[in-house]
Amino acid sequence: MAAPALLLLALLLPVGAWPGLPRRPCVHCCRPAWPPGPYARVSDRDLWRGDLWRGLPRVRPTIDIEILKGEKGEAGVRGRAGRSGKEGPPGARGLQGRKGQKGQVGPPGAACQRAYAAFSVGRREGLHSSDHFQAVPFDTELVNLDGAFDLAGGRFLCTVPGVYFLSLNVHTWNYKETYLHVMLNRRPAAVLYAQPSERSVMQAQSLMLMLAAGDAVWVRMFQRDPDNAIYGEH
Q1: Contact 140, 124 (CB under 8 A)
Q2: Do residues 204 and 190 make contact, with C-beta atoms less than 8 angstroms apart?
Q3: How many other C-beta atoms lie within 10 A of the C-beta of residue 231?
Q4: Entry pTM
Q5: What is the per-residue DSSP string for 79-114?
Q6: Cβ within 8 Å of residue 155, ≥6 positions away
Q7: Which of 15-19, 102-106, 135-139, 160-164 has the lowest average pLDDT?
Q8: 20 to 30 A Cα–Cα from 33, which one of 46, 60, 202, 208?
Q9: CATH tag, 119-230
Q10: Other CB atoms closer than 10 Å to residue 159's CB: what's the count?
């Protein structure tokens, strides 16, 4: 019974009670329980508030935005239109579109008023040349609309601008020369010529002239000796 008593005694003795061992200060080997009781020492509370939390990792809370996100609001008022930007470069040429439908027939237009002039004149008497140029007068009127051709002066005065077709026909005298000019104002526009022959012939000259208002067309006989002549009979 002596051995167990000795062992129990050895366990209850503090470390410093053993003879031959050095004395050391008492330190805590574990943390006190939390939360400390109402009778706990101030040092225990400070331990939990300071030292313990310094050694633990900090945990930051994470908030899920989707949970806190509200419903979609109504559309706001439309803002003012911004300034027009700079004009860009022209684009590529597009494809040709389809042919459109035929349109409706338009209303009839006004009647076209055509202005024109026409004349046909002749000479019955023969004519011989002189020592100077002379206009060929006419004495027979076949057609002369609005009196455009002056028989006595032998001139057509243009009042309607346009393109005119003119034709001159001459009966030559046998063994005599015929030399005439179709004149536009003071400029020769064409020549009618027939060489002397033992028989008389019909010589013709035709031309088209662009005439303006005020232009004059007439026939001029060339100045020659009496051999230059045109034939005429009633």
Answers
A1: yes
A2: no
A3: 18
A4: 0.51
A5: -PPPPP-PPPPP-PPPPPPPPPPPPPPPPP-PPP--
A6: 135, 149, 216, 217, 218
A7: 15-19
A8: 60
A9: 2.60.120.40
A10: 13
- Predicted confidence at residue 30, as pLDDT, reads 54
- In angstroms, rounded to a whole number, what is the distance separating the alpha carbons of residues 134 and 166? 20
The enclosing H or E element of 11 equals helix 2-12
Checking phi first, is residue 214 left (phi over 0); if not, alpha (psi -120 to 50) or beta?
A: left
User: What is the C-alpha R_g of the chain?
Assistant: 68
Residue-wise pLDDT for 98-153, tens only, equals 888 889 999 988 887 777 889 999 999 888 888 888 899 999 999 998 888 998 88
Q: Is 161 helix (H, G, I), strand (E, B) or coil?
A: coil
Q: What is the dihedral of CA 154, 159, 162, 167, to 10 degrees?
A: -20
Cα separation of 185 and 135, whole Å? 12
Say how far apart CA 164 and CA 117 lie, in whole Å: 9
CA-to-CA separations, 94 to 27, 88, 97, 99, in angstroms, rounded: 94, 17, 9, 15
Whats the size of the chain, residue-wise? 234
Cα separation, 180 vs 220, whole angstroms: 6
Three-class SS state of 28: coil
Task: Report the b/e string of 128-158 with b at 16+ CB within 10 A.
Answer: ebeeeebebbbeeeeebeeeebbbeebbbbb
Strand 149-150 and strand 202-211: the pairing is unpaired
- Give CA–CA dist 18/21, Å, rounded: 6
